[in-house]
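User: Sequence recovery, please. Input:
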């Protein structure tokens, strides 16, 4: 009788182990790795260093982050080299979706662009209300402007501002392109005592070591908006569609939006990004 009880107990324990294994297998993602193509600003500010470990712990996915300009990130998506994108180049994003490369584009957050430069402000742009007006002054004074020149969201916004100013800076001696990310471009501009356009978040993170000031801010044309998009499995069947959706859902979740809302406040006195999930683009910045 005693042996029978032990036998039954053993069978019961084994059944529990098998059941637990089955449940674990069902809960674990089929394809664990996700490739996230994103902008240098989300990396340089440290935001992803906070968010990704939380996402990985909660879901069991592993995220490989490739931080490039928005244009390069979308080029990766077009080639099926990424599963999900977190970018800030609205016009290019709309085309990306319209061309069938991306799906489920959702608003995540925003901050803004600022024009920064050395305190001497040779072109006298400080407190200029219009960003395009500031660009006109820089061009007229022929003072060094350092551009990312990398087809990023920041570079796209900069080109819009030059167009609004009625100026083509290409080929001008005072206009230099780095082909680098935001942090590196800020370092180049600081070293050469030039002007540049930067997202506020990256500037605030690096401000202490730059010796540069915000000279122009607040223009509606400087709004910097981030969306998350999943790469279309209809174009690229090997895309990790479940992982991409899980990450996109995570970025617009209430918990993540609350983290974004407070990120940077303790260190810089203000958030580096403002959460926008569920809002309309036309209502941002109001």
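Assistant: Recovered sequence (286 residues):
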């Amino acid at each position: 009788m005693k042996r029978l009880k032990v036998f039954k107990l053993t069978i019961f324990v084994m059944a529990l182990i098998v059941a637990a294994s089955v449940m674990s297998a069902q809960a674990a993602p089929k394809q664990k790795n996700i490739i996230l193509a994103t902008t240098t600003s989300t990396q340089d500010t440290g935001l992803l260093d906070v968010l990704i470990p939380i996402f990985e712990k909660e879901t069991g996915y592993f995220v490989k982050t490739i931080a490039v300009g928005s244009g390069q990130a979308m080029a990766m998506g077009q080639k099926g080299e990424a599963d999900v994108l977190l970018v800030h180049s609205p016009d290019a994003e709309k085309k990306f979706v319209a061309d069938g490369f991306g799906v489920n584009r959702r608003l995540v957050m925003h901050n803004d662009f600022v024009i920064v430069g050395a305190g001497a402000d040779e072109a006298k742009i400080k407190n200029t209300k219009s960003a395009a007006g500031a660009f006109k002054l820089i061009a007229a004074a022929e003072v060094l402007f350092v551009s990312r020149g990398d087809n990023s969201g920041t570079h796209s916004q900069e080109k819009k501002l030059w167009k609004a100013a009625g100026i083509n800076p290409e080929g001008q001696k005072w206009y230099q392109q780095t082909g680098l990310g935001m942090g590196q471009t800020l370092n180049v501009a600081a070293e050469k005592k030039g002007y540049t356009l930067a997202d506020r978040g990256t500037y605030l993170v690096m401000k202490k070591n730059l010796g540069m000031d915000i000279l122009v801010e607040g223009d509606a044309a400087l709004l910097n908006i981030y969306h998350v998009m999943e790469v279309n499995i209809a174009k690229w069947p090997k895309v990790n569609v479940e992982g991409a959706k899980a990450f996109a859902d995570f970025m617009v979740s209430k918990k993540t939006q609350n983290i974004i809302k407070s990120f940077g406040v303790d260190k810089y006195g203000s958030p580096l990004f403002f959460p926008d999930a569920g809002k309309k683009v036309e209502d941002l910045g109001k």
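Residues 4-10, 15-27 have pLDDT under 50 and may be disordered.
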